[in-house]
C-alpha cells in the first residue's frame, strides 16, 4: 500500500463525500426544522437532474447552457417542493411519522412516473461542462477537474449555508422555529411560511445536486432510490438536523466507502448501514446532533 | 356474567362475522372451479402478501412499533428456502420449515437491538438492518446468486400445478392467519395493544415492555419468513429486491390501505392493492401514478384505512342509536 | 415505615427540579404533597416510581431499596401510581383497561393462545364496581367523560393490589361535584383495601379533607411537613400560597 495509493483513495473519498454532502444537506435541513423523514428527497434530486438535462439540451448550441441550467433547474425543483409542502405536508405535520414517511413514498412513486412519462425510461447523460473538461494529476493519480470543482462547490455550499443560518436574520428565524415552534409563533413569526421556505430551500439544494453530479454519473430512473438511502445514512451519522453533521457524515461515508472498496470491496456497500446501526445504538442523535 | 363457552367465544367473533368468514372460506376453497388459472395465480400471490401484511401488523397495528424493514425478514425466509433447495439440495419440507426458524432467529437478534430505541430511531434501525440484509444478499454471489438471484429452483413437480400451489398456500396462510388471530386476542395480545396505547403506563402495571416488544418483533419475523418461503415456492425464484426498502414501504402501504387497527385491515389492504396493481396495470403502464394518488388520499382523508374508517362510521352510527 | 425517600435530588441540564427531598409514608397514612406549579411534585413522583433515576438519594419501599429498580419491577412490589396527564388505554374498553393490568398482576400476560375475552372477569368487575365504572364496562376508554377516565386510572392502579398508591392530581379538571365524588371514592377505597396514600393535589378542600400529613414543596425543596392544622398555621406556607388560592 503505497503512500500515493492511500492519498489517492483519501482524495477520492473526500470528493465523494463532498458530492454526497451536496446531495444530502437538503434532507438534513428539512429534517432539522420540519422533523419530516422525506423519502422523496432522492426524487427531487432526480427531478433536478432531468430538468437540468432538459434545459441543457434545449439550449444546446448556446455556450454556457449547462450553467444556465444550474441556475434554472434548482428553482424549478424548489417550486415543486413548495407546492408539495403547502398542499400535501401541511395537513400532516401533526400526524405520526409513519404517515409522513408513506406520504413521501407516494411522492417517490408519482415523481418517478412523471419523469418516465416526460423523458422516457432511457438513460441520459450530461457532458462535463466547460471550463472543467480536463483532468489534473495529484499523487500519481488522475483526477477530472470537474471533480475538484465539486469539492470546491461542496465547501462553498457548506459555508454559504452556515452564513445563512448563523449570521442572517432569516437564519435566526429558521433557528428559532427549529428550536421552539410555539415560542417563535408567539413572537409573531409566520411559522407555516417558514416551514414552506425551509422545504423549498432543501428542495433547491436537492435540485442543485441533481445538476452538479450527473456529469460524473448519469441522468436515469432509479437514481432517486439509490440516492435517498445514502442521504439517510449521512443524516443519521452526522446528526438529524445538523448542518455540520451532514458535512461530517458525508465525508465519513465517502472515506469509508473509498477505503472499504480498497480493502474489503464486497462489504464496502454495507459499511454505511453498519455505521448507521452503530450510531443509532450508541449515540442516536448523531455525532454532531443534539439529544432531545 | 356467566362464562361464555360458545363457538363464537372461542373464535372471538360474533355470529354475523363468523358467517362472513365461512362464506369467504367457501369462496376461496372453490375458487379454481370458476375462475381461470391466471386469477388463481393472482389470488395465490394475494394470499401470500396478506400473510406478510398480517405479520407486519403484529408489530405495526397491535404493538405500535413502526418498522421500515419488514422486507428484510421476508427475504430471509424466501432465500432460506431457495438456498436450502438449490445449494444444499434438501427436500421441500426442511427447506420451508427452516424459513421461519431463520427469520425468527435473525428477527430476535435484530429486534433485541432495535427495541432499545424508540420511534424514529427504532424505525431507522430497522431500515438499516434490512438494508444490511439486502447488501449481504446482493454481494454474496456464491451463496445467494447476488444480483442475478436464484432461479429455476428445484421445486417439486406438485407445485407446478397452479391449483395445487394455490391450495397449499391457502392452507398455510389460513392456519397462520388463525394462529395470529389467536395471539392477538390472547392476554399477550392485549398486553401488546396496551403497549401501543400507552407505552409509559404499561410499565407501571408491571410489564417489561421491551420484552413484549421483542416478542412481537420475533413473532412478526416468524410469519414474514413463512410468507417469504411461500413466495419462493410459488414463483420458483428469489431476487435481492425482496429485501429492498421499497418492498418494505409497499408492505406498510398495504397495511395502511386497509387499516392497521383492525384485524381484517391488512387483508382488505392486500385485496385493494392487488386489484389496483393488476387491474389498473391492464389499462395503463402509469399505474404508479394512481397508486401514489390513492396513498395520498388515504393518508390525508382516511388515515385509519378502508376498514378502519368503515368501523368508525359503524361505531358512530351505533352510538347515535343508543 | 412503608415508603422512605432520603435526600432525593434531580436536575435536568442545570435546572434543579428536586433538591434534597426526604419524606416518609407510614402504613395506613394519607399523605399529600402540595406546592405551586413547578415545585417539582410530579418529578418527585417520577423519582419514587423509577421513571426517572435520581442524581442523589435513595428510595426504599417495605424496607427494600428500590432506588435503581425499573418501573415495572417497582409496580410489582405494591407501589401503584396514577398520572397527572391522562394515562389510560384509549382504544381499549374500560373492561379491557383494567383487565390488561390484572393480566400483568396475575402473571397471565405471557399466554399466547388463551382467549382473553372475559378472562379474569370477576376481579375486573369487582374493581370496576369499586370505582363506579361497572355500567360503562364496554365503552372505549377514550370515549369516557374526563372524570370517569380519572377513575379508570385509579382502577388500573388498583389491579396490581398496591399497598401504597401515588395519585398525581386525581381531581384535576373536575367540577366541584365530581371532586367530592372522587374524594369519597378515594377515602372508601383506602379504607376497604387498607391502602396507604400519597397524593399530589391543588384543590385545598381535598387536601385538608383527607390528609393525615401534608408536605409542602417549593422550587424543588420540601419546606414543611406536618399535620393539616400546623400546615395551615405556618407562615411560610401562607406566604407561598398567597394569591395561589383554591380551585
SSE arrangement:
The complex is a heterotrimer of chains A (292), B (322) and C (247).
Chain A: H1 3-34, H2 41-58, H3 65-89, H4 97-119, E1 135-138, E2 141-144, H5 145-167, H6 169-179, H7 181-186, H8 191-212, H9 223-238, H10 243-263, H11 265-282
Helix pairs in contact in A: 1-5, 1-8, 1-9, 1-10, 2-3, 2-4, 2-8, 2-9, 3-8, 5-6, 9-10, 9-11, 10-11
Chain B: H1 7-11, H2 15-29, H3 31-34, H4 37-63, H5 70-86, H6 92-114, H7 119-139, H8 141-144, H9 162-184, H10 187-197, H11 199-203, H12 209-235, H13 245-258, H14 265-283, H15 287-301, H16 305-321
Helix pairs in contact in B: 4-9, 4-12, 4-13, 4-14, 5-6, 5-7, 5-12, 6-7, 6-12, 9-12, 10-12, 13-14, 13-16, 14-15
Chain C: E1 3-12, E2 15-25, E3 30-34, H1 41-48, E4 56-61, E5 64-65, H2 71-76, E6 79-81, H3 94-105, H4 121-130, H5 146-158, E7 164-168, H6 176-193, E8 196-200, H7 204-210, E9 213-218, E10 221-226, H8 228-233, H9 235-241
Parallel strand pairs in C: 3-8, 3-9, 6-7, 7-8
Antiparallel strand pairs in C: 1-2, 1-4, 4-5, 9-10
Describe the structure.
The complex is a heterotrimer of chains A (292), B (322) and C (247). Chain A is mainly α and 292 residues long. Helix content of chain A is 74%, strand content 3%. Chain A is built from eleven helices and two strands. The longest helix of chain A is centred in the first third of the chain and has 32 residues, at 3-34. The relative contact order of chain A is 0.20. The mean pLDDT of chain A is 89. With 322 residues, chain B is mainly α. Chain B has a domain at 37-243. Chain B has helices at residues 7-11, 15-29, 31-34, 37-63, 70-86, 92-114, 119-139, 141-144, 162-184, 187-197, 199-203, 209-235, 245-258, 265-283, 287-301, 305-321. Chain C has 247 residues and is of the alpha/beta class. Chain C folds into two domains: 1-78 and 162-247, Rossmann fold (3-Layer(aba) Sandwich); 90-160, no CATH class. Chain C has nine helices and ten strands. In chain C, the strands form two sheets. In chain C, strands 6-7-8-3-9-10 form a six-stranded mixed beta sheet, sandwiched between helices. In chain C, strands 2-1-4-5 form a four-stranded antiparallel beta sheet, with helices on one face. The relative contact order of chain C is 0.18. The model of chain C is unreliable at 243-247 (pLDDT under 50).
